[in-house]
Amino acid sequence: MKKHLRLLSAQLLATALVVTAFSGPARADTPDRDPQLAAEWQTAWDTYKFYKDVPPLPGSGRSRAKDSVSITINAPIKKVFSAYSNINNHLGMHSFLKRVVTHKSWTQAGKRNVNFTAVEEIPYEGTIVTSNTHAQQRIDQDGYYYETDTWSLPNVVTHQKIVFKKLTAGKTQVTEYLTFDADTTLIDFVVQGGVSSHEATQAGLKQAIENGDI
Q1: ω before 31 within 30° of 0 (cis)?
Q2: How many angstroms separate the CA atoms of 32 and 103, rounded?
Q3: Average predicted confidence (pLDDT) for the chain
């Protein structure tokens, strides 16, 4: 039992990494990139509808928790927003994230929408556990914010809103508002792992942006 919980904790830590107004059905329609992941994304979207921000019902066995993390980056808001909102720039910011597969991107109602899967490889007792996090990102370039909804095993859903605020002296404040939905027995693992992962990713992006690496 202890071993199972340690493995589950590692999976949830990786799951919460991805950071993450829609009308009409979404489609993962680029089989030339990764047909298996595209099919998995579509199944997750159709089955769990993780874009719907509906709180778990009382007695359902699932719980919701919220938190936020914030960081100040010494760079202008346009530069920070462009670099930070590009999910591909998150590669290398956390050792588990190995690949991002974009299934579809389009613009609707002034927002850029991106359907993607983040592939994470988690070392565990001499082996590698692969975790696929399926997500939709909606970027509002005029409002300087974006939202990301994600789903991954074991039925963990996150709703994220990342807001960018212009500060004095050419600095930018980035605040991530995080909402986690998971089985009640796992919610503490999800929140702890999710917050720590987002903090680590924020620190990595801050360094890369300020150094001019991205």
Answers
A1: no
A2: 9
A3: 85
